[in-house]
Amino acid sequence: MLLWAIQQPIFSKHNAYVTQSSLQLNIDACGRSLSILQSPSSLGTAGVTGSVMWDSGIILGKFLEHSTESGTIFLQGKKVVELGSGCGLVGCIAALLGAQVILTDLPDRLKLLKKNVETNLYGDVRGSAKVNELTWGDDLDPDFTDPLPDYVIGSDVIYSEGAVMDLMETLAELCGKQTTVILAGELRNDAILEYFLEAATKEFIVGRINQEQWHPDYCSSRVAIYVLVKK
Questions:
Q1: What residue ranges are annotated as transmembrane (predicted)?
Q2: pLDDT of 62-81, one tens digit each?
């Protein structure tokens, strides 16, 4: 069954949980105070949005924490691949929750990503994290597919029609029957969401998680969380 709806986010505050002009964002998660370095100056480069945090990343990370604490999701020892990791908050939270995480992004985004992983994953960490280069649509290294991940996660990865087919090609290669895909995104453009939906439903069952299941302190009608599983 397909569970899908597009909300109109006009009554919700933009950037409720982030300050993109700041060089650092602090957030409490998993019993730690995480410090996420940002590079606001990079936003002036066309196509570079992963140099700062967005609400969808905060919401997805806190959703994973809340779902693990409530027993809805079990990440201990699970293999997780994060697509478009950007500043790395979501992947770091997944590692703190016990997952074996591979955080990925384009080659020119990896320096900031690695720095944030090193800064926040110190001492006693339940899981692990490593940073790998990944360009959607390219052939995947065996690290990604042997074995296939239990979870594929990402925030703000549905942002242009041009990227959708490469994203879907990578998802199809990454995912087996046991893989759950969890994607969070800000609701900016209905046409792009519809284009993604049309492509995704060819291979996946697509659902959307009700806000009642999110972390109660991190909700926004500007953001949606989708779940995909292979048919």
A1: none
A2: 999 999 999 999 999 999 99
